[in-house]
Structures are given as C-alpha cells and as structure tokens.
Amino acid sequence: MDARQLAVQILKAFDGKTSNFDQIVDGTLNSASIDRRDKRFVFEIVYGILRWRIRLDYLIDRLLSNDRLRTNESLRRVLQLGLYQLLFLDRVPHHAAVFESVRLAKNIPETREVAGVVNAVLRRVITDRRAGLPGEIKDQTERLSIEYAHPKWMIDRWLANLGLGNTRKLLAFNNERPEIYLRRKIRGLSKQQFEAETHSLCDPATGYLNLYYRLKKSVSPDMVDAIEHGFCNVQAPSSGWVVALADAARGEKILDVCASPGGKTALLSELVGETGSLCACDDRWSRIRLCIDTFGRLQLPNIYTLVADGRFPPFAGIIDKVLVDAPYSSTGVLHRHPDARLIRTPEDIESLSGLQADILDSAATLVGSGGTIIYSTCSLEPEENQVQIESFLRRHPDFKHIGCPESIPETFIDRDGFLAITPYTHGLDGMFGARLKRVGG
Questions:
Q1: Active site residues
Q2: How many C-beta atoms lie closer than 10 Å to residue 274's C-beta?
C-alpha cells in the first residue's frame, strides 16, 4: 500500500467517528511498510485535509455535477486528497497530483468507474483557479467558515467573545502548521551539551526556565536522537507555563489527576527532585501507557502511575498540590488537533464543563489547609475557564484564587490574575490556568 492509499485508509477510519485521530494515524503508520519520507507525506496529507476539510467539501459540492457523485464518500476522499495537493501543497507538481489521484481512484472499487470525474475536477481547478475559490457569500459567519474551514458554531462563539479582529487572527493561526518544540530535560545533560548536540536542529531556547527549543521547519521529531536517548521531550511552551503556575519546590509530593501523555508530570518530577514524588493518574490504561513510556524514556523514577478516574480519586489523606489538567474542548489547540473542529459540538462545551467541575470538586477533597489546586485547559471558552473557576469558588468558599507566581511573565497574565495564553495575542498554543488555595477547613 503506497502513501496515498494509506492516507485514504486513515481518512476512512476517521470519518463519522470520535476516536482519537492521533491514535488512528500513529497506529496505521507504525504498522505500514513505508519509509520515513512517505510517512511524513501521509502525516502532512491527512492532517492538512482535516485542517481544510470544510473548505474542500464546499468546493467538491460545487464542482460535482449531481447528488450521486456527491454522496460517494470514497470519491470525496480521493478528491479531498487531490485538491489539497493542488491548493495547499506546493512541493507536489500539479500533473503528479492529478495522475496519482486518478490512479488511486482506479484502485478503489467504489471509485473505479468515476476515475474520469477525478481527472476532470482536478484539471478544471488547475486551468481555472477561480473554480477553486469560495463563491460570493453574504453571511459573515458562513463566509468565514468556508474561507478558514471552521464550523459556524465556533465562529459565532468567537465573534461574540473575541470580536472580528481576534477571531480572524485565531482562524488564521489554526490553519498554520504547528511549530514543534523540544523541552530539554533539566538533569542528565547540561544545557551547553544539549545545545551543542542540537544547534543545527533547533532555534535558541525560550519559555519557562529556557527549556524550550523550536525545531527548524525542515526537522521532524523522528530525526532528533536526543528524544530517543531521553534528553528531551516534545512539548509546547504553553504547557511549561502551566508547570510554572504550580510553583513546585524540591521535596514536594504532587498528584496529577489527568496526566496523559505525561509531559507536565515529567517536568514537575524534575522540579521536585529525588526527595519529592508524583502520582500520575488517568482514567484509561492506554493513556497511562503513554505516561509510562514517557517517564521511562526520560528516566524519571519518582513518578507512580495509576489508572483512576479523576472524579473518584482512590486516595485518603491530604495532598499539598493537585494538578487538574482537565479534559477540554481543544479550541486553544485546533492547529495541532484539526479533527476537533470536525467532531466537537456546542453540546460538548456544556458536557465538558460538567466533567471539569466534577474533577475539581473531587480535587478539593484531597487538599488540606494551605494546599493548592492547579487547574488548566487548552480551551478558549469562558465556560471551561473563568466561569468554571468562579463557579468552583462559589461552591467552595474555603478556597481562593491566588494569581500567578512571579516566574510567569505579565504578558501571559490577564487582568483577573489568570494564566491566559491565546493564539491571537501570543502566537502560542491557547492555555488557561488558575491557582486555587485552600485557606480554611
């Protein structure tokens, strides 16, 4: 099976499902007998198609002549693949995109008889670039939805909450290929040694404690030996500022109730040192397995893992600090998770807010006087962030919001003292965070 066939297989496995798209991609590519270059091509194609699918489907519906063709899902996937290469992937020559798409259609039973349609549609877009553009749409939300390939309900929310200017910036950011960062391990390899080994691969250090190095555009994580050797981990700088919010000290014992995939827990474990310890929990073994792999590769012996639902933590006694990196809608990281814009619904905001509240309430039972809950999400939605914290404080008057430590730059702190990193302001992954200290009980 070649790269384009694998891409179609992945898109078919995702369609109509809410399964984790990253797992579908990783599972398919790990079992495929193709080289590293082809794997990168598949990765680019499938994530790019999901990123632009709303716009691609709009164009396909305009370019196909009848409902019989429009409802042929196999044909739609082949056309998505071809159109994405023509419109958004400069390094594939047009003639190659057409030839390979037609060849692919001929190899799929459901599209064999309409391979000529694939040829005609793609050649029309090449010869008439206007055919590949959205038509005149008067409604602002619908126009933005097609132009930037986002669902209308998200755009309506952001227009109301952020205004038109910030909404456009956010939509444009979400359609950029995400930057990849390495978080250097604090111990085991000096900063000078690490930078000597990776200087040709990375930009200079930034972020919390200057631990974050952006990979150059031509470099992918599978090219970095330091990851495999346990000297660094892939992690975005915004996550580092959540760890900064915890203000961890050596010797502390911390509970992370929603730990997967383990990046924040790993950094916390280094900060508390060999005299401290962490317990990393998540509600599924598959998630804990990711954590175990991360902690083992980074050689972090002071972390204990446990399969446990954050709403029902199986603990007795008092814990000094609890990290609640809660399940979220992902609206702050849609550039990394384009599948979320296709599977999320407005109802998810409400249901996730309820789940977040339940986990926070459970965390409150574990924290003694003077103890702290650190709450964070990769969401931009008030119901998951500020409103969530306001509601928690009403339910738990023995807690108060204490703001951010001095280690966090003011540019990342909003007027209410919350950690508030936004793509449209900072050009980074969206991240919200709050520190809640128990002052009574």
A1: 378
A2: 12
